[in-house]
Amino acid sequence: MARAIRFDEYGDVEVLRVEDVPRPVPGPGQVLVEVRAAGINPGEAAIRKGLFRERFPATFPSGQGSDFAGVVASLGEGVSDVAVGDEVIGFVDTRSSHAEFVVAEAVNLTPRPDGVPWEVAGSLFVAGTTAYAAVGAVCPREGETVVVSGAAGGVGSLAVQLAKLAGATVIGLAGEANHAWLRELGVLPVAYGEGVLERIREAAGGGVHAFVDTFGSGYVELALHLGIHPGRINTIIDFAAAGKYNVKIDGNAAAASADVLRELGLLLDKGLLTLPIARVYPLDEVRDAYRELERRHTRGKIVLRP
């Protein structure tokens, strides 16, 4: 048997529980991984609440989780690219990584670089590939200015760095508590709230060329007021505004591959990228982990350790 997170109905964090389940068995082309760390994400909370039930319905009893890093425990038929004992970063689309063991497709795994801690590796996939796709969608160029909302969150903290690596000047919208940290990354911090449009214009000096929205709450409209072309605005959350104004919605699905995961892992290993870890919770405290996540004020990622 193995422990895993389960829920039997849509609802708040109280529906989550830790349950003993049969230890999964890998099929052809699959790998069983003993999970060392697994990140949690806002999309998982929305699915569990039933907010996406039309687009991403749950089948009960449901597990949850996409991100993970761990050690290969056994191999399914036909797997030859990894070996038992390998340390890997990976992902699943079966909502099952918040557990002691997870079965993943072998093609969705990449080696964990020695310089990437378990907590970082285990929370890299969703935030990392979402930031990678969102920044790529707005095509930042050297000498341009890019604004990122939610700049200290899991996705935003990576998006500001990827935009910097592309050569852009980056303005990060965040609370005052995160301004010093953003400055350390070479990002120009701007406080959100009333008057943010004027503060962005003042920080930019010249024009603003692109906008990555990781937070919602009217930032698509704000980007348009800044004079940014809709084709260089990307939101990962405000789909209603995206449909209304014809802006981009590239996110996790647009970059969900082991190749992108490998590239991000190497950037982390070389010190060219950093992923802050807000807090690590044991599996038994999954409800508390999601309560903290849903406050939307953490810097970086919240992680479960089975």
Brief overview, please?
The chain is an alpha/beta fold. The chain has helices at 42-49, 118-122, 125-138, 154-165, 179-184, 196-204, 219-225, 239-245, 258-269, 286-293, and strands at 2-6, 17-21, 30-39, 67-75, 87-91, 101-105, 109-111, 145-149, 169-173, 188-190, 210-213, 233-235, 277-282, 301-305. The mean pLDDT is 96.
Show the helix and strand layout:
Elements: E1 2-6, E2 17-21, E3 30-39, H1 42-49, E4 67-75, E5 87-91, E6 101-105, E7 109-111, H2 118-122, H3 125-138, E8 145-149, H4 154-165, E9 169-173, H5 179-184, E10 188-190, H6 196-204, E11 210-213, H7 219-225, E12 233-235, H8 239-245, H9 258-269, E13 277-282, H10 286-293, E14 301-305
Parallel strand pairs: 8-9, 8-11, 9-10, 11-12, 13-14
Antiparallel strand pairs: 1-2, 3-4, 3-6, 3-14, 4-5, 5-7
Helix pairs in contact: 3-4
Describe this structure in words.
With 306 residues, the protein is α/β, with parallel strands linked by helices. Helix content is 29%, strand content 24%. It is built from ten helices and 14 strands. The strands form three sheets. Strands 3, 4, 5, 6, 7, 13 and 14 form a seven-stranded mixed beta sheet that branches. α3 (125-138) crosses α4 (154-165). The chain is globular. The mean pLDDT is 96.
Oligomer: single chain
The radius of gyration is 19 Å
Structural class: alpha/beta
Total DSSP E strands? 14
Question: Helix-strand pattern, N to C?
Answer: EEEHEEEEHHEHEHEHEHEHHEHE
Number of helices: 10
Q: Give the percentage of residues in beta strands.
A: 15-25%
N-C termini distance: 14 Å
